[in-house]
Design goal:
Dbl Homology Domain, Chain A, single chain, alpha+beta
Length: 313
Amino acid sequence: QEPEEKKIALELLETEQAYVSRLYLLDQVFYTELMKEAKTRKTVPEEVVKMIFSNISSIYQFHAKFFLPELQERMEDWSCNPRIGDVIQKLAPFLKMYGEYVKNFDKALELLTAWSERSPPFQELISDIQKREVCANLTLQHHMLEPVQRIPRYELLLQEYVRKLPPTSPDREGAEKALEMIFMVAKHSNAAIAEMERLQNLWVVYERLGLEDDIVDPSNELIKEGPVQKISTRNSSTSEKYLFLFNNMLLYCVPKVIQVGAEFQVHLRIDVDSMKVRVLKDSQLPHTFLVSGKQRTLELQARSGEEMDAWIK
């Protein structure tokens, strides 16, 4: 009867062997053959192939030449040296290179779909490779997902391993340290995804605003957006406007009637710095509030009390 922790260490080794053959397929088969096709027959730009596969070659080399051999050696030597914590500690810093692959993943899938439609020979070569036995009836997209799922898998296996270790195990300290490092890397890769999503969402907002130079800034953060009524003090009539509140500025916009390109026209920007906001008590005009900044003061009306409170907050 093998001890529980050894079973988990063996499972780590077996899944690593399977993972390396999947990486081999991605790097040495798909990437290499599609790159050759791009160079010789020009059915797809070389740049596109590089962008689809991101840094898969580095990931493959690292696992095939370094991590898997170290793990194999350790498992053969288990009876004299029953530990894997130190091997995983060596591995952990290199897992940061997954950040790039994970961050690029959605874009890679988009490019793959777009070029498969645009270039039949490109699609044909992918289909041919997918028919090979080594692909196990799975698509390229399916194989590309493997590296994205690998770090969470390490985390789960290692958590299980630490749980099963006897209190006196020589690997206790090493394995706990390794788990902590893997956890940090997973956080790093999740942060990379979150940052990518934030930038994508920000870019969509900038496009709706017509990509005005002085507004496009990657460090901005959109806090709230939505329609409001602008109250005209002269004849107390109202007109439909739209606000975008960023961490550093409030954009006061007019919806465009003909939406070619942009959806809104920016009429005014007020710096958040030294901006003041207060409720206006007006029985004729409920849910109104005043925004005053360096640039000017606006009297606005929200659709409801909740909406007004949300803007003020």
